[in-house]
Amino acid sequence: KMADVLDIESVEDFGEEDGDIDVSRLKDRARKRKGRGLVQPPTEVDRDPNYDRIESGSDHIPGPQKSIEGWILFVTSIHEEASEDDVYEKFSEYGQIKNINLNLDRRTGFIKGYALVEYDTYEEAAKARECLNNSEILGHKIHVDWCFITEPKKSSRRRKH
């Protein structure tokens, strides 16, 4: 058996065929797009986002910062088998809890080891933070700190070395 052979010498001209003309016309009309997200002109939302903000005021003191909803504590090193009720019970002794959030690991079903506990007033949150930091839940030592803090105001003058 003999394989199919392409006879190059019998081909007359490698000029543009109908398909080549269509491809070149298509390439002329195409726009070049590069980069992640194909940068587009900013929309109205991008130019003037109307987000809720809390102004820190002129007496910029470093320390805890109130969120839009309230005063939020970040609790870490929680035992993985602890429940929302365990955390709620421990923190409700220091004031009315406005909201509590424990994220679960979808694979295991246990909590991820941290929680966000929200109080309405600074006094309740500060008391809970002071009393519960380095305390225990289900035999595990937990750490409690502010979720949002303000940094010291940066001086406009540069340091000279």
From TrEMBL:
Stretches assigned to the RRM domain: 71-146
Localization per record: Nucleus; Nucleus speckle; Cytoplasm
The name this protein goes by in its record: RNA-binding protein 8A
GO CC aspect terms: cytoplasm; nuclear speck
One Pfam family named in its UniProt record: RRM_1
Basic and acidic residues: compositionally biased ranges: 44-58
PANTHER family per UniProt: RNA-BINDING PROTEIN 8A (PTHR45894)
Family named by the database record: Belongs to the RBM8A family.
GO biological process: mRNA processing; mRNA transport; regulation of translation; RNA splicing
UniProt keyword terms in alphabetical order: Cytoplasm, mRNA processing, mRNA splicing, mRNA transport, Nucleus, RNA-binding, Translation regulation, Transport
Function summary: Core component of the splicing-dependent multiprotein exon junction complex (EJC) deposited at splice junctions on mRNAs.
Matching SUPFAM superfamilies: RNA-binding domain, RBD
Coiled-coil annotated residue ranges, if any: none
Subunit structure: Heterodimer with MAGOH. Part of the mRNA splicing-dependent exon junction complex (EJC) complex; the core complex contains CASC3, EIF4A3, MAGOH and RBM8A.
GO molecular function per UniProt: mRNA binding
Sequence segments annotated as region (Disordered): 29-65
